[in-house]
Amino acid sequence: MVNTSSAPTLDVLIVGAGLSGIGAARHLQVRCPGKTFALLEARAALGGTWDLFRYPGIRSDSDMHTLGYNFKPWTAAKAIADGPSILSYIREAAHETGVDQHIRYRHAVKRAAWSSQDALWTVDCEHTTNDGVQTVQIKARFLYLCSGYYSYAEGYAPKFEGQGDFNGQVIHPQFWPENLDYANKRVVVVGSGATAVTLVPSMAEKAAHVTMLQRSPTYVVSRPGKDGLALRLQRLLPDRLAYTLTRWKNVVLNIFFFQLARRRPEGVKKVLIGLAKRQAGQGVDPVNFTPKYNPWDQRVCVVPDGDLFRQLRAGKASVVTDTIERFTATGVRLNSGKELAADIVVTATGLKLNALGDIQVSVDGRSCNANQSLVYRGMMLSGVPNMAMAFGYTNSSWTLKADLTAERVCRLLNHMDSKGLRSVVAQPGKDVSPLPFLELSSGYVQRAASVLPRQGSRRPWQVYQNYLLDMFSIRFSRIADGVVQFSR
């Protein structure tokens, strides 16, 4: 049975109460104070990624001076923060601003239908209560998707031959068992990405031994867990000024090193591999830290204060580069013939990406396939009116781009109000060719190529991985730029 809400039509409906959604709501409060809005959150708590993932050592791989909001300074000592600290920060931001009063929990959005005649979105969501599940309809003038880019319901977990023969536990990090006892256990972590390099040193503190089994090496870079300059500035300056200066310092440095890696890949590759080999120590085969691809063809993994390398040198952890032939009763047998004994196998094999939060979107009865759309300024899908999405950076902090997108949405809404406009849609010209949305060669990106939207071959359809370029494209460019079409 469908319950059509008797509440007034909302000006803005935000989907997701994670890092992006809370930030989007705060920007609306400040920049569009007259707008009515609500946040729909499928889960029973806010925080998104930082509430979902509970595996040992969960942390950011970006510094908190850029992962934090531009309106709320990060004042804690650790720049590379752990998951609980980040979740606490998001909760504080929501509570201090009153955004938490606008969240409707256990509302999972399933469908969103746009009517051009009414200039309204009708959103169907499943509201879970103690009495069961009820379908609720909500109407809104603008739909803002802040639900991230991966499925919360399932991760990427390839099935290995003989997996059922294994007498131990097989665990995916996205669904970590509460109170799992891994003390004095032999652990094999399958993977080499950000999750794996976080899990290995953390689990090695208690486990008998942890082996990181990687199909191919990844660039791993040690970075101080604390930002010395940020701490000095915090002692000398007001919090907001110290935060802003640190934020810009980190933005500029990140852009510099990324551009250096793209323009001088061989030189940067040599430096990164050399640093990793020295930090891993004499007992680690150099091949385990020698990727076959160039830096930033895939994400570069950060380890705070070299924690992974420290455990390798201590003999509490090891790295093996090989592929799995099959599981056995006592571990995993590799294609090289070697067998790794294990009590627990953690499949840190990646995320399953999705588009638009798996919401079925339609415009005037026509189903919309995100993969057939181009992305305007990294935030609006071509042919879909009055809708924006938050999608952050892959080479820097997610929130930098999410903040810019929120600012643009607010400018757009205010422009429409001032001109008496009811709808806006972005339409590419015939001279714009489609290109992949993300230019990473990582497996999780390639697997989602048929799902993600696409970018275009020219402005404003290009997706930059550069905060400065986006700042000019999103923050300072005209709203009525001749590409978006408005209707009264």
Structure description:
The protein is of the alpha/beta class. The strands form 8 sheets. Strands 1, 2, 3, 4, 5, 6, 7, 20, 21 and 24 form a 10-stranded mixed beta sheet that branches. Strands 9-18-10-11-14 form a 5-stranded parallel beta sheet. A 3-stranded antiparallel beta sheet has the order 15-16-17, with no helix packed on it. The mean pLDDT is 91. It is globular and about 70 Å long. It has 2 domains: 2-152 and 353-487, 3-Layer(bba) Sandwich (FAD/NAD(P)-binding domain); 157-232 and 260-349, FAD/NAD(P)-binding domain. It contains 12 helices and 28 strands. Helix 6 runs antiparallel to helix 7.
What's the quick description here?
By secondary structure, the chain is an alpha/beta fold. It has helices at residues 19-31, 49-52, 64-67, 83-97, 194-204, 228-236, 239-263, 265-280, 307-314, 398-419, 443-447, 467-476; strands at residues 2-4, 10-15, 37-41, 103-105, 107-115, 120-129, 132-145, 150-155, 169-171, 186-190, 209-214, 220-223, 301-304, 317-321, 324-328, 331-334, 339-341, 344-347, 351-353, 360-363, 366-367, 375-376, 380-381, 387-389, 423-426, 434-436, 454-456, 484-487. The chain contains 12 helices and 28 strands.
Count of domain modules? 2
Low-pLDDT ranges: none
Summarize the main sheet.
Answer: 10 strands, mixed
User: Could you estimate the helical fraction of the residues in percent?
Assistant: 25-40%
How does CATH name the architecture of the largest domain?
3-Layer(bba) Sandwich
CATH C-level class of the largest domain is: Alpha Beta
- Mean pLDDT across all amino acids: 91
Query: By CATH's scheme, which homologous superfamily of the largest domain applies?
Result: FAD/NAD(P)-binding domain
- How would you sum up the global shape? globular
Beta strand %: 25-35%
Work out the helix count.
12
Span between termini: 34 Å
CATH topology of the largest domain: FAD/NAD(P)-binding domain
Q: Say how many strands there are.
A: 28
Radius of gyration: 23 Å
Derived structural class: alpha/beta
